[in-house]
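cron nightly-structures :: item 1 of 1
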Amino acid sequence: MLHRRLPLIAVGAFVAMVALTSLLAWSVFREVGSTFAPLDGPAWLDAWFHGDSGWYYAIAEDGYSYVPGVQSSIAFFPAYPLLVHAVGLLLGDDWTTAAGLVTLVSAAGAVALFADWVRSRVSPRTAVVAVALLLLYPYSFFLYGSGYSDALFLLTALGSFALLERRHFVLAGLVGILATGGRPVGIAVLVGLVVRAVEMIAEERSARTARSLALAGAGGGNGPADPAPAGPADPAPAGRGGPVPLRELWAALPAVRWRQAALLLSGTGLVGWMVYLGVRFGNPLAFVAVQEAPGWNQGSGPYTWFKVVFLGTIVRGVWENIALLVPQALACLIAVLLLRTAWRRFGWGYTAFALVSLAIPIIGTKDFMGAGRYTLAAFPVIAAAAVVLADGRRPRWLLPVVLVALAAGLCVATVAFAHGVEVS
């Protein structure tokens, strides 16, 4: 019963977490006030309005602008602020409330989809642990009302995969447009969808072969085996029998048809954004160039790849920055170490999605700033962490200790964010 109702229970737990974290954020907010003024929403939502929320507010209210060499709003992809703008118009130009509502509704949907996804792939106990990890992850406070795009991206990523699993290839591609138009790591959704579609073909072939062999064995070898039923077979659930061999994945490529190719539609979110930037500002890659602006200083090249700034922060002992950056670096490290478990349990497609989701912020940031919340999007890794923690061979005390530590981290991060600290 619990297993079947897990999505509904997960949403209920999400609502409880929203109430608890919002109360905590509001208790800080009423003492220190906002880093932005004026704000037009209820106080409990205004308490979540810090950091990059101001950029999204400006985009929703006034649209995009770009000045080369200066921090500009085109660094932020359009899916979230456009949706906030649409909701804000319905609310009478109330952008703060609109941003919070878009985040909360998106996050509730994402939590439900994650619970539905994980319950079909792991044991009931592990599924419950996975939902708990998602809700208690320290950077999950970005799901609880902040004016950030993380919740919408997680919803569109999970939604596109859910549609793919139900063979709604065109719809999966269309939802994927919101993902690739939502943030730079959206390309991970396109990669994951394509790899998963090929993997599903390989799984269907393997299932048909196994059925034919079983029928042949049942016939005792006297005469030809009964033919396999017409139509696609139910795929073997990823993770229960391990991922399909790589050679079978490769052999399935020629079987890709136009309906699977519709998944490539998801890439038009990024393409459309680049076309807009090219037409309006004369540079289709302006969202990359603007990262080098003073204040962000997020250039590319070896200086960024090898984390010279991060290492310098550690060596110089800048403890205020160390406290912000090291937890995010550790989150990335743990996520990378969990990729093998994700591959063994959930297959090639979801691992490809998680790998690209992690690789872009890890390689592209000079000091891991922002990587904590970007790791939140790699939902197969969160499920893989649950698999590890719920393993009966682990010490019984490990899981509760991890959950308590995560909850404490979530509280600390929420208080810091409400104080206006750039947590991630």
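cron nightly-structures :: done
Residues 276 and 282 are 9 Å apart (CA to CA).
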